[in-house]
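dumping this here before i forget
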Amino acid sequence: MSWFIGIATYVVIWWVTIFAVLPWGVKPAEEDDPGRRAGAPRNPRLWRKAAITSIVAGLIWLVVYWAISVQLIDFRS
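structure:
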């Protein structure tokens, strides 16, 4: 796997993972909370979710890299 394909694979895995992590721990804001839309999360903790996403995506990427390097996944045939 070239470095460009490796980075592109990580980016795709990261985006798929962020959409899986975003709903974790979401609590809606109070109804009388001024300046918030209905259904907006009270405390989204986006930096924490981005860190969790990066770690999980890195682990998934390592599994994909290993599977390609031992030719469990072969794109050439």
